Amino acid sequence: MNSPYAVELDHIHTAFGAHRVHRDISLHLPAGEIVGLVGASGSGKTTLLREMMGLEYPSRGHVRVLGEEVADTCALDCRQRRNHIGVLFQGGALFSALSVFDNIALPLRELGIDDEGLIGQLVCMRLAMVGLNAHDAMLMPAELSGGMVKRAALARALILEPELLLLDEPTSGLDPVASEDFVSLLRELHHELNFTVVMVTHDLHILRDLCDKIAVLADGRLIAFAPLIEVLKIDHPFIGEFFQNHRARRVFNAMESDHG
Ligand SMILES: Nc1ncnc2c1ncn2[C@@H]1O[C@H](COP(=O)(O)OP(=O)(O)OP(=O)(O)O)[C@@H](O)[C@H]1O
Prior knowledge:
Blueprint: E1 5-16, E2 19-30, E3 34-39, H1 45-53, E4 60-65, E5 68-69, H2 75-82, E6 85-88, H3 100-110, H4 116-129, H5 134-137, H6 146-158, E7 164-168, H7 176-193, E8 196-200, H8 204-209, E9 213-218, E10 221-226, H9 228-231, H10 237-243, H11 246-258
This protein binds adenosine-5'-triphosphate (ATP).
């Protein structure tokens, strides 16, 4: 990649029929950072992630991912680019008919790799990275706890060593302990592998503890893109509602006093 930015969005407008979701969004995400994407329900967060993956196209504007224009590439380039993007969407989205092992191995097999010894080695490495063992690998998704589903889905998202990881509500449905474990795991893996992360999340602890910057969508526009401490100072009704309610104040107070 020859750009300092993992994702570049320039003047994105997205409409579904008469429904305008994005109105002139420009956002450049530096490579190697963890960015949290926040906004009210229906503000177009998931659609923005889908546009980064090339699964959806904006009505106007440019999306560049890992230095390449998304709309301009042919199907083959698009598939090649997707090999550099790891994705973990809500619910983990493991294939229920495949074991954990086969779910994690799937992107390798889809690439045409048929050396089962190599596949076994790569899957075992990723299993160990996310804290799962050989016994877990033989289980079916229905036999896993919520935290294990997320770990298995993360292992699959990382199997091709992506430069960019897109996560949609990665801790939704997890209890606080499993959620904290998942956040620690993500922090360690990010430190080790240095990928860029774009993550839709409402989880205040993730925003506080993990994200380098927060991008906030409201009224179809990007109203903030800054470290959390700066976002908290912005005077906007959505920021007031989301970041300055009782619960949020308890989570963020310690941080604000640390920064004076
Ligand atoms: N393929 C589609 N066709 C029509 N409308 C769509 C389509 N995809 C998304 N939308 C609409 O676009 C808007 C934004 O959807 P999106 O899922 O991106 O929002 P979101 O911010 O991720 O919401 P949530 O936090 O509830 O998941 C919603 O009103 C949704 O109904």
